[in-house]
Design goal:
This protein is an alpha+beta fold. The protein has helices spanning 2-6, 18-38, 51-55, 60-64, 84-92, 137-153, 166-175, 180-191, 195-204, 209-219, 226-236, 241-259, 304-307, 322-332, 354-366, 380-389, 400-404, 426-435; strands at residues 41-42, 48-50, 68-70, 76-79, 102-111, 123-132, 160-165, 222-223, 265-269, 282-287, 296-301, 315-321, 343-348, 370-373, 394-398, 407-412, 417-422.
Amino acid sequence: MLSSIFGQTVRGMRDFLPEDARRLRFIERIARETAELYGYDEVITPTIEYYNLLAAKIGEENRKRMYVFEDLGGRKVALRPEFTASIARLVATKLRSAPKPLRLFSVGSLYRYDEPQFGRYREFWQANFELFGSALPEADAEIISLMDVFLKKIGLDGYSFKIGHVGVLRGVFSDEGIDEDKQNSIMQRLDKKEWEEAIKLLKESGSSRKCLNTLKGLLKTSGKDPPCIIKKMREIVKEYPGAIEAVENLNEIIDLLRSGGVETEILIEAGFARGLEYYTGAIFEVYVPEMDIALGGGGRYDKLVELFGGGKIPGVGVAMGMDRLSLALKKHGSTIHISAPTKLLVVPVERSLLGEAFKTASMLRESGFCVEIETMGRSVSRALSDADRRGIAFTVIIGPREIKEGKVVLRHMAERKQITVDLSELPEKISQVCQC
């Protein structure tokens, strides 16, 4: 039956009821404020892009989960599963000659055909921050610092950062002569914590015993004491120049964060990998103890813009999962400070006064008030009862005698008191009462 279909959303999609919508928009507002604080300009890219653009370097697992289809022109397109490819396309084309660094912000919905579960939906929302043009560690530190400020501004606490560097692993693999496709396969296994599978693939690639031992050593190396972990990493990869360089880069980033005042707990994980193939340097995620899924994450990608024909423009960015942040705030019991407008309801005593009710409502809206008009044909007593139930602060009652005298009745719902007010003085009177 159609009623059974219409009664539910498509699997993995969901409705946002008012409270959830307010929380999501609150997070979005703070993301915009943070972007402005750091000088990031908003760009808006299409929800639908060419498949080949979105599929490039996103990783095999993510490619399988894209919503892909042919449009009426026979073109293979897809719903965006993340922002970075679209932003990199923009930087490679329309913003190619723009002064660097480029700081870009975007926010919106994304789509992946994942198995729906707690914190994972097929339509989800992200706030995205990207910095293009600098390959220096200060750019990575800025993105992580921005993430820290954003999380504090939305009222989240108790979170920690997990940081790694794909250059360490890729440095080892490259020095061993392992080609990029095999590296990507190994990294995918590492991202899914399939350690034995990753080691098996490494063996099959013809790597040396030294390489296998190095990977095993890195996988065992993690901790919340950055200087100690960095020291261990140096020792493990000492025979791989590319990996050593990556470790020193990671150390510089963490030193900048600490000297710059970021006090958030940092877990360094030497064998950390993320599913996206375009990462070339530092990678990071943020977690809270109550949830075993990342609230956001990102990293450095220095070759993606070049892949799209835009020249050698390095980049680093982070995507914050707004849905997951909303869940984290709920779990924390955090109070979201959203200044709700004072609501007014204009009630005509009889239908012949509807025109006056509309004029009064318009005048109040021009003065900045949130105003509803009684549109259900209720009696005054029933309208007041409904207003009380819905938390309306004031009602303005339009009566025939009062309106002839240029007046209305203003009722303070919480105090159950009402006064007669000159219509011309109504906005000022409401403002006075609100301040009391």
